[in-house]
Amino acid sequence: MSRDHPDGTSQTTPVEIVGSTVIPALPGQERIISWPARKITSSTTTVEVVRYTNLFNAVALISEIAMTGDNLPNIKWALNSSAGYIWQELTLPSSLTLPLPDFRLALNGWVAVEARSVDGSQITAWASIVGKEVGT
Q: For 106-121, b where at least 16 C-beta lie within 10 A, e where not — what string?
């Protein structure tokens, strides 16, 4: 995006376009989101492995989530958000890194990766949420 100045020159401002929203990428206005976590459980009801909540006056752009575990056939996964479940009861054949293009969270919006044991045996689930806050 460029702007003409009175002296006839142009200044270019880097921007990111998400959906139809233009977000200026100015120095000092971005913060990295990197939330890795591990949960050891034998619960057959879903528990949070990792959760990110946008508590800042910014738009949070979630770019990917990743999931893995010690016994993947025995783990059911869910992706939950402040807007409701995106998916649940997912079984992974192997570790998964899932890109989430255009996944935005407004102030107080949240996203969480959840897991549960299929049969009550102990599982270890690892998950991460990656992205950035723009406009802080």
A: eeebbbbbbbbbeeee
Q: Are 118 and 89 in contact (CB under 8 A)?
A: no
CA dist list (Å): 55 to 84, 106, 122: 18, 9, 33
Contacts of 20 (CB under 8 A, 6+ apart): none
pLDDT in tens, 37-59: 999 999 999 999 999 999 887 89
Say which residues have a Cβ less than 8 Å from residue 127's Cβ, sequence separation at least 6.
36, 37, 39, 49, 50, 65, 66, 67, 68, 113, 115
Where does the pLDDT of residue 1 fall: very low under 50, low under 70, confident under 90, or very high at 90 and above? very low
110: nearest Cα among 78, 77, 81, 79: 81
Three-state DSSP state, 73:
helix
Q: What is the pTM of this model?
A: 0.78
User: Which pair of tokens denotes residue 33?
Assistant: 């989101």
Report how far residue 40's alpha carbon sits from residue 115's, in angstroms, rounded to the nearest whole number: 10
